[in-house]
Amino acid sequence: MTPRISELGAHVGQRVTVRGWVTHVRSSGKIAFAVLRDGTGIAQAVFVKSQVPGEVWERFGTLTLETSVSVTGEVRAEPRAPGGYELGVAALEVIGASPTDYPIQPKEHGIDFLLDHRHLWLRSARQRAIAAVRSELEQAVHDFFYERGFLRVDTPILTAAIGERSGLFSTEYFEEGTAYLAQTGQLYGEAAAAAFGKIYTFGPTFRAEKSKTRRHLTEFWMIEPEVAWYDSNDNMRLQEDFVSFLVARVLERRQAELKELERDVSKLETVKAPFPRINYTDAVAILQGKGSAVQWGDDLGAEDEALLVEGYDRPVFVTNYPKEAKAFYMKENPDDPRTVLCDDCLAPEGYGEIIGGSQREDDYDRIVQRIKDEGLPMDAYGWYLDLRKYGTFTHSGFGLGLERTVAWICGLQHIREVIAFPRMMYRLRP
Ligand code: NSS
Predict the structure, then answer these.
(1) 163 C-alpha to ligand 1 centroid (Å)
(2) Would residue 300 count as lying in a domain?
(3) pLDDT digits over 274-323, tens only?
(4) How far apart, in whole angstroms, are the C-alpha atoms of residue 251 and residue 257?
(5) Ligand 1 pocket: which of 235, 404, 425 to mutate (most atoms <8 Å of CB)?
(6) 211 Cα nearest atom in ligand 1
(7) Does residue 271 lie within any of the structural domains?
(8) Whether pTM exceeds 0.90
(9) CB of 403 within 8 A of CB of 217?
(10) End-to-end alpha-carbon separation of the chain, Å?
């Protein structure tokens, strides 16, 4: 039998073979220990000199950090052992030696060094915990929308020039000229919402932003639902239900990982719908009262976002931003035409914006005007305008940034650790 380490509990008293990598060795001369990792957990292999063949004892002596091995022995429950189980070793095979210059040693390494060795850094317990929370969230995203009757629609990554305002990555596209990597799936999502009613996209998005902040990647994953007949209020209700669902799922299924990350889970347990809503104009007044230099008309920066959520135990919506601060497709607010029917969802504890959402402008003439005002290339938007020409409809949607959400839930200051191989302005390798 070759169980994974996480399955050892079902094999107590049995002889099994475990394959994995050595993370730690120590020996007293008569008894020796090797801690193994296989990605599902850790277990301790115990070698008793008087009980194992001489060659096995000698082979133990060759084990180094990250040697890959196959260990056969009897499973014992041992509360004091890392992982809670140990193997009383009978046999040991070395599968792949690991020279003693393994780059990541149990000591402090600088972040650039770790990112240069990201392919190896992923093997750490902390990185596994983050990856497990991310994977849990991805599954929860699909479950949430599936349970609510949404269709998943996969939108193109190679697009003509259309999207958000930030920088575009481009590439040659046969005879068609320049193609751009998608910054959002939204505009295609809107077409799909008119066709299928309730949809979501979940894919990589790309922004050639020259920002080197702790919350920007050039390639990140976004979840974008788009719903026919939803107005801005319905949209925020969906967002708070969605975010509460995601947090509850991680609390329910990933306690061990949150513990590994030393996350204060009491800060997550309060994340329940409904979320407070602050109108942008009020937010500016609150921020000015707290000493911020923000002026009406500005988008809110990271510091302002952190100031604003102080004292809240759950995410906060900031609604109805000024038109100038937001994208052309957002619907004008009938109660205050200087603003649009939109919301940013700000995570608590200063993590900042995790969602941008809005009701979409559904009036043909108004959206044409917005495209002109923004100086966007009208010809690229022909098909998008058809959605307003043929049976226009009230609709709303939002985009949740997966990496920012994982960083918040895991309690990480920087989003570079929440994706296996981060892409940033100065990082294309490994
Ligand atoms: O630019 S957004 O605010 N909005 C959109 O892209 C809309 N098209 C979404 C929609 O309505 N369908 O980005 C949405 C979220 C934002 O709140 C962040 O959580 C995340 O996407 N985001 C990023 N994450 C990581 N790195 C970068 N550069 C980044 N930009 C946005």
Answers:
(1) 11
(2) yes
(3) 999 999 999 999 999 999 999 999 999 999 999 999 999 999 999 999 99
(4) 10
(5) 404
(6) 28
(7) yes
(8) yes
(9) yes
(10) 36
